[in-house]
Structures are given as C-alpha cells and as structure tokens.
Amino acid sequence: MSREFFGFRKNMANDSTIKAIVVTVSDTRKAADDISGRTVVGLLSEIGAEIVEKIIVTDDFENLRQTLFTLTEREDVNLIVTTGGTGFSERDNTPEATRSVIEKEAVGLAEAMRFETAKKTPTAMLSRGVCGIRHQTLIINLPGSPTAVTECFEVIKPILQHAVNLIGGKTEH
User: Is residue 173 domain-resident?
Assistant: First the structure.
C-alpha cells in the first residue's frame, strides 16, 4: 500500500507505528478536566498512533525536565507530545525543559505551527513551544488550549509519520 506524500510515493509497509506519550503540563489540571490532553490523545488515535501513556505533570522545571528525560529513555516510545506550559507566565517552563533534554532541535515544526495558526489566531505567535529529538524520540510542545492543540496538530499531521520514520532510521521513500 502506498500514498502520495509531499510529492513522492511512500510505501506504508515501511512505516513505524507511532507510539506516543501525551504529557499535560499544568499546576491545576487533573485527569477529569484535562481537555487538552484528551484532545491530543484523540488526534493521535485518529492517525493510528498507539497511545502508550497519558500523564499530567506540574510546571516545575526540574520535575518536567526529569520526566521528559526519563520518557525519552524508554524503548517503547518514539513520540512525546506535551500540552501546556508554552506561554509567557513565570511558571511556563515546557520549552526550557524540552531544550534541556533534546539533542537536536526541530525548529521547522514549531515555526510552521506558529506561522499557520497565527493566520487564524494572532495570539498563537505568543507560544514558545519547541520541538526536538532525543535518541529516537520526537518531542513536540503544543499550547495548553484545546483549540490551539487542534490547530497546531493539523499543521504537523501530514509529516508526523514521516518524521517518526526518519528518526527511527527508515529513510526510504
């Protein structure tokens, strides 16, 4: 089975299943009111990703940094999507925690999300989210609003599987 993907045919049999952990970053959210986290799970499920785990962590920098580091050590995960902690408030530490663990920054992903979503919502340019790679895991920071999560995900959805494949060493088109 193959499909057209940004101008080239892609063999779906070579795809690695996306195995994701969703991390909600918040000092106030609990499982019952974590709409953004549930939104990420739903969007990933729609593209066939396996949701390995969904967790909520506080905005505390060191706790978040250690959590991301530990999650990227797992062999059963190739994608971590965070939601929350990307704004301008003093407790918004997600970009800094992410930068402290990644080995390579994926600047284009974050730039594309901000550029495209700012066309609809000017405040999207206030998101400081970053994306990057540690070992064979892609980390993507999304804002905390359910609407922003959906809008940002739509931007990266067409390349997400390809990105995971490349990180996993599958470079054949």
Answer: no
CA distance 111 to 96: 16
> pLDDT per residue over 3-25, tens digit each?
343 343 344 344 689 999 999 99
H or E element that contains 19: strand 19-25
The tokens describing 102, both together, are 């990644």
**Digit-coded pLDDT (tens) for 35-70:** 999 999 999 999 999 999 999 999 999 999 999 999
Burial class of residue 144 (count of CB atoms within 10 Å of its CB; 0-12, 13-18, 19+): buried
- Residues listed for the chain: 173
Angle of helix 146-167 versus helix 107-118 axis, rounded to 10? 150
- Of 44, 13, 19, 50, the C-alpha closest to 173 is 13
CATH number at residue 129: 3.40.980.10
> Which residue do the tokens 């390995």 mark?
52
Query: Distance between CA atoms of 105 and 128, rounded to whole angstroms?
Result: 13
Query: Total structural domains in the chain?
Result: 1
Q: Which of 95, 74, 29, 77 is nearest to 56 (CA)?
A: 29
Q: How far apart are alpha carbons 38 and 146 in whole angstroms? A: 9
